[in-house]
Design brief:
Elements lengths: L6 H8 L2 H6 L15 E4 L11 E4 L4 E4 L5 E2 L1 H9 L3 H12 L8 H27 L6 H9 L4 H6 L3 E3 L5 H8 L4 H6 L3 E2 L8 E2 L4 E7 L5 E8 L8 E3 L15 H9 L5 E2 L3 H9 L5 E2 L8 H10 L4 E2 L5 H14 L10 E2 L8 H8 L1 H9 L2 E2 H10 L7 H15 L5 H19 L46 H26 L8 H6 L5 H12 L5 H12 L2 H8 L1 H4 L2 H4 L4 H31 L6 H23 L4 E3 L5 E3 H17 L5
Parallel strand pairs: 11-12, 11-13, 13-14
Antiparallel strand pairs: 1-2, 2-3, 3-4, 5-8, 6-7, 8-9, 9-10, 14-15, 16-17
Length: 668
């Protein structure tokens, strides 16, 4: 129906928005100024304790700074009462004392028809309730008793019974003068295909009335008593009153309970909702046996900003939860999401409550996982990521899902959460480094970087050498390399911290850093968790992980402070070149470590001539490296990071590598 020009403006003029809103909220007297029409209260659309909901009475608009709900008096009534536009106008017009304009005859006729259908549904509720007390309902009453629903609970939920008769309800309603057309239009009966009398939609079933948010019975759900029935649960067909995809079982009472602070719980079926409510979880709803629709999801969010999906712990329940993720991702808004409480395998909320009581369910609700965690579980569970291609496939699948999120802030937070979980899955094992040598006593920096004694297991301590070989040049060279690696790691970490813009370019290399020192490992982990963040956020995370002194000690260490990119923080090009070069050196040194480890392994037993020969060759190479560094110190290459590299040392390093490789096939 159309309204005459000026009607809505007159309606808004006559009404005080604060009076309309005041029926649903408690104003904050400290922040509100009634004389200026400036009113504040906790938001009625999401649970909060602070007063972030603002009403500007003069302008006639409200806005929540928490959930961003906004609108005027009409939209407020629509959202809080779950009514249509014209119904909201009618409610407000009644409060303002304004007569509604004459309706279009067809619209009036349709409204009257809906009212008549609602009356027929109420008569059906009473008939089914009465039928539950008959002899034909003995098995139904016994079933309800076994499910823990006594007479009082049955009355609270208006549970009834439809006898196994073809025209039981039909005959009752027509005898009371109800038009056959209304019975058919309400979905309570179906026309016969053989030209006979219409027959009841529900037969031999326990009946659950389905009411809308305003309390009108719009449909029924029936549970079959015959275990061989093809449909265990049967809902009313869609009618003028009932749209299954826009309805929730227990909608009205759940909204009231959620408004008092209870969490909104979404279960699968009628019995789950009833059990939850009977055990004190009154803010519980069910989507009427179908997958949750977008409309139902929006209805849930109008009740509570973060519903808890408590689905059955079976395959079907998990599939439903996974499908819901794809539906919800594009609809997410700040402060508006879902959490998931998956029941134990083979259980539903009703089973859990009866077996272990409300505390067990409350524990599951308290531990409900955020939706991002379930998304990660869906994409990784039961899969093996043992190749770059599989890891890339996981990255692509997750990126495609995150792209569905429209809100850029939420999209960013999801990306960061996924990076954190990816790091936990693929990061090198702490304290193991893949079996490679460990080393690094905190304090190599000369400035006291790190905690005293942290990471004190050196390469020598993790290998058992014979006393006669502990002082060999081979072992000494390995210990020197451990120190060199520690210093190079310090330079890399400092460069990344001072210029975090380059972190993303070297994620794989950073992940592969052994970080023999515990503080270096912590710094590496923090850096990888902060990919894409600015320097301030990165430093805050480092302070939280290691305290305020660790970063200063690292950056002021003599071998770090002289590096050009550290002296000019934020120089992306210098930082990129420094990190690339130092990572390459670490990778080359790691190959040498592996060769030394092979030779050292042979030294743990009785030395034979072959091992002695191999050791002598490696010792000569090591000594050559030392000599070249001291005798020809004027011969240098300059690395891209500004550090000097002895050309003879580079040659000696290659000689040492060749001697060890040759020893594997040399004379024994």
């Amino acid at each position: 129906m159309s309204l005459p020009p000026g009607f809505l403006d007159e309606l808004r003029t006559r009404l005080s928005l604060s009076q309309v809103v005041g029926r649903k909220v408690m104003w904050d007297p400290r922040k509100s100024n009634q004389g200026k029409g400036d009113m504040w209260a906790p938001c009625p659309f999401h649970q909060e304790k602070s007063a972030s909901f603002h009403v500007d009475d003069r302008k006639g608009f409200y806005y929540c700074f928490g959930c961003h709900a906004k609108g005027d008096a009409i939209s407020f009534v629509r959202e809080t009462e779950n009514v249509g536009f014209m119904e909201a106008v009618q409610i407000l017009a009644g409060e303002a004392g304004m007569p509604m304009p004459e309706r279009d005859p067809k619209a009036q006729e349709k409204s009257d028809h809906r009212t008549e259908l609602a009356d027929v549904m109420e008569q059906a509720v009473k008939f089914f309730r009465m039928s539950l007390n008959t002899g034909a309902a003995t098995d139904a009453r016994n079933y309800l008793d076994r499910r823990g629903l006594n007479a009082e609970a049955q009355a609270r939920w208006e549970i009834g019974f439809a006898a196994d008769a073809w025209q039981g309800l039909w005959d009752h309603l027509t005898a009371k003068g109800v038009s056959p057309d209304l019975i058919l239009a309400a979905g309570l009966a179906k026309p016969s295909q053989k030209g006979g009398k219409p027959y009841d939609t529900f037969r031999g079933r326990i009946m659950f009335p389905i009411r809308d948010a305003r309390g009108r019975c719009t449909a029924f759900g029936g549970r079959a008593m015959d275990p061989n029935d093809n449909a265990k649960y049967l809902n009313s067909p869609e009618t003028e009153l009932f749209d299954k995809g826009r309805s929730l079982y227990n909608h009205g009472p759940a909204r009231t309970a959620a408004g008092k602070g209870q969490p909104l719980i979404v279960a699968e079926g009628y019995m789950d909702v009833i059990a939850l409510a009977e055990y004190g979880f009154g803010a519980s709803v069910a989507p009427l046996g179908t997958a949750i629709t977008e409309n139902q999801l929006q209805m849930m969010w109008r009740i509570a900003p973060e519903p808890i999906i408590a689905l059955d712990g079976d395959t079907a329940g998990l599939r439903a939860a996974m499908r819901l993720i794809d539906l919800a991702l594009p609809l997410l808004e700040a402060g508006q999401s879902l959490r998931f409480a998956i029941m134990p395998d083979g259980r539903d909320p009703d089973d859990l409550l009866k077996a272990h009581g409300a505390p067990a369910l409350q524990k599951l609700l308290d531990e409900a996982m955020p939706m991002v965690n379930l998304l990660w579980q869906r994409e990784t569970e039961g899969k093996v990521f043992d190749s770059p291609e599989r890891k890339a496939g996981l990255d692509k699948a997750l990126r495609e899902k995150i792209k569905l999120i429209k809100d850029p802030s939420i999209r960013g937070h999801y990306g960061q959460a996924i990076k954190d979980m990816r790091w936990d899955l693929f990061s090198p094992k702490r304290g193991n480094s893949g079996g490679a040598p460990r080393g690094g006593k905190g304090g190599f920096s000369g400035k006291g970087f790190g905690r005293k004694g942290a990471g004190a297991n050196t390469w020598e301590q993790t290998h058992s050498f014979m006393p006669t070989t502990k002082s060999s040049a081979l072992v000494g060279r390995a210990q020197d390399d451990t120190i060199d690696a520690h210093l190079r790691e310090a330079v890399i970490l400092a460069a990344l911290i001072t210029t975090p813009a380059v972190i993303e370019d070297f994620e794989t290399g950073i992940e592969n850093m052994l970080c023999r020192d515990e503080d270096h490992r912590i710094l590496r982990d923090v850096i990888l968790r902060c990919v894409g963040r600015d320097a301030e956020v990165l430093r805050e995370n480092i302070y939280s992980a290691l305290g305020p002194d660790a970063l200063d000690n690292l950056l002021n260490a003599s071998h770090v402070a002289i590096v050009p990119c550290i002296r000019t923080p934020g120089d992306v090009e210098k930082a990129r070149l420094t990190v690339a070069e130092e990572l390459a050196k670490l990778e080359a040194a790691r190959g040498l470590d592996a060769e030394i480890a092979d030779a050292a392994e042979d030294l743990t037993g009785v030395a034979d001539e072959g091992v002695t020969w191999r050791l002598s060759q490696a010792a000569k190479a090591a000594q050559q490296a030392v000599r070249s560094d001291t005798e020809d110190s004027g011969e240098f290459d300059v690395g891209q990071n500004g550090a000097r590299i002895s050309r003879d040392e580079r040659s000696a390093f290659e000689t040492l590598m060749d001697s060890i490789r040759f020893s594997k096939s040399g004379p024994s």
